Amino acid sequence: MFVIVVYDFNEKRVAKALKICRKYLHWVQNSVFEGEISQANYVKLKAELSRLIDPEEDSVVFYIFRTKRYSKREEMGLKKGGDENIL
Amino acid sequence: MFVIVVYDFNEKRVAKALKICRKYLHWVQNSVFEGEISQANYVKLKAELSRLIDPEEDSVVFYIFRTKRYSKREEMGLKKGGDENIL
């Protein structure tokens, strides 16, 4: 399956959140990640984030798609995704 | 078409960015918006955001889908989307 993950973590935890997400997904920009992921790894990703998250301060949204790809991605402004988003 | 928009604006401009996106889309959480949008309105949305954005500081990612809906959305932690995200 294909997922898009968007998070908003307090700066105390954001570096760890980035590290966790990069283990499983491609870093698109800022707090946005995407990629093909197995169901097993998706469960692991959520488990790792749920151990990190402070539910009073942080939030994560997961979009799960059966189809492999969105039609199109467009970007505006600053790019922070690094080289790894060139697939 | 169906779009997901994720932005990261400097706090000086974030209130305006929120206002622009809410004109066209549903506020999901934090900096995440989604919704059905016509091609004409999508062009307007991008034009308004491009007038606001400081490309040295801010960024926006647009995911465009031909199909009406993602398979599933899951959330973790804080919800900031307000009532309007109950479709």
Characterise the protein shown here:
Two copies of one chain form a homodimer. By secondary structure, chain A is of the alpha+beta class. The first copy, chain A, has one domain: Alpha-Beta Plaits (2-Layer Sandwich), CATH 3.30.70.240. Chain A has helices at 14-24, 39-52, and strands at residues 2-8, 26-29, 32-36, 59-65, 72-77. In chain A, strands 2-3-1-4 form a four-stranded antiparallel beta sheet, with helices on one face. Chain A is globular, with a radius of gyration of 13 Å. The first copy, chain A, starts with a strand and ends in a 10-residue tail after the last strand. At the A-B interface, β1, α2, β4 and β5 of A face β1, α2, β4 and β5 of B. β4 (59-65) of chain A pairs antiparallel with β5 (72-77) of chain B.
List the helices and strands and how they pair.
Two copies of one chain form a homodimer.
Chain A: E1 2-8, H1 14-24, E2 26-29, E3 32-36, H2 39-52, E4 59-65, E5 72-77
Antiparallel strand pairs in A: 1-3, 1-4, 2-3
Helix pairs in contact in A: 1-2
**Helix-strand makeup class of chain A:** alpha+beta
Q: Biggest chain pair contact, residues each?
A: A-B, 38 and 38 residues
* Mean pLDDT value of chain A: 88
Strand content of chain A: 25-35%
In helices, the fraction of residues of chain A equals 25-40%
Q: What is the C-alpha radius of gyration of chain A, as a whole number of Å?
A: 13 Å
Spatial order of the strands in the main sheet of chain A? 2-3-1-4
The name of the CATH architecture of chain A is 2-Layer Sandwich
How many separate domains make up the residues of chain A?
1
Give unreliable regions of chain A as ranges: none
- CATH class value of chain A: Alpha Beta
Oligomer: homodimer
CATH topology of chain A, what is it called? Alpha-Beta Plaits
Shape annotation of chain A: globular
**What is the rounded distance between the termini of chain A?**
17 Å
EC number (chains A, B): 3.1.-.-
GO molecular function, one term (chains A, B): hydrolase activity
Family (chains A, B): Belongs to the CRISPR-associated endoribonuclease Cas2 protein family.
Subunit structure (chains A, B): Homodimer, forms a heterotetramer with a Cas1 homodimer.
